[in-house]
Amino acid sequence: MDGFYEAFGERVRKARTALGMNQQELGSAVGLNRTSISNIEKGRQRVALHMLFEFGSVLQVEPESLLPAPDGRSDVLDELPEDARGWAQNVLANAQKEERRG
Fold first, then answer.
1. How confident is the model at residue 77, as a pLDDT?
2. What pLDDT was estimated at residue 76?
């Protein structure tokens, strides 16, 4: 189970940094302190289920995209250079919004 929370925390960190947001800003936006965000990103603090939607909203990603794949597969974004991930996440988020508008 620890690996699950570590992977979740890594996804939160990647989404946060892609937006240029620091831990304090994310914490304030979701109602947690900076230390909690740090612990979540390191997999040391578990998150209540309803917080998944808070994180998704603030980080401008679909909540399920923060969840690790059940079979342990890595995210395709992991294969991109760090400086291209934010751009790719924005493109995907915009495509998902357009798809929902349909």
1. 65
2. 62
